[in-house]
Amino acid sequence: MKDAINYNELMKRASNAAEEIMEHAECTDDARDMVHEYCDWDWTIYNGKAMELCCNVPAYLMDEAQGMVEDSGSVEATTGLYEHAAMLAYWIIHTAIVEHLEGMIEEREAA
Q1: Rounded distance, CA 68 to CA 35, Å?
Q2: Which residues neighbour 25 within 8 Å (Cβ) at sequence distance 6 or greater?
Q3: pLDDT exceeds 70 at position 4
Q4: Is residue 75 within 8 Å of residue 69, measured between CB atoms?
Q5: How far apart are CA 91 and CA 8, in angstroms?
Q6: What is the pLDDT of residue 78?
Q7: What is the pLDDT, as a whole number, of residue 5?
């Protein structure tokens, strides 16, 4: 059976990643710095999965990811569709993890 690649599954995986980051981080700054280490999922590695993720997320995530890709300056005239999708997928995942992580940090600070 094929694993679902959609917003709900993205947010479940991102929540799990954020929990793992919080377990290993010594402080909140460390946690924020660690996010990039948790973004290389199968959805960023396999082109078809990256494309599917890009098609199955809300516009705000796609817009945020597109902005990050543009800011990185990594898209050139020779960048292919699949390579671009993989970059977008990485930043979609990054944004989702950060959303969960920031929520956990706020909860921890409020307690």
Answers
A1: 15
A2: 31, 34
A3: yes
A4: yes
A5: 17
A6: 86
A7: 96
The tokens of 40 are what? 């290389």
Name 6's Cβ contacts closer than 8 Å, sequence gap at least 6. Answer: 56
Rounded CA separation 62/47 (Å): 16
Tell me which DSSP letter residue 35 carries: G
Q: What is the pLDDT of residue 1?
A: 43
Q: pLDDT exceeding 90 applies to what percent of the chain?
A: 86
Taking the C-alpha atoms of residue 77 and residue 105, their distance in angstroms, rounded to an integer, is: 40
CB 95 within 8 A of CB 65: yes
Query: Hey, what are 24's tokens?
Result: 């290993």
Kindly report, residue by residue over 41-93, the tens digit of the pLDDT: 999 999 999 999 999 999 999 999 999 999 988 888 888 999 999 999 999 99
CA 32-36-42 angle, 5° bins? 140
In 3D, which of 45, 93, 86 has the Cα closest to residue 101? 93
Residue in 25, 5, 7 with CA at minimum distance from that of residue 104 = 25
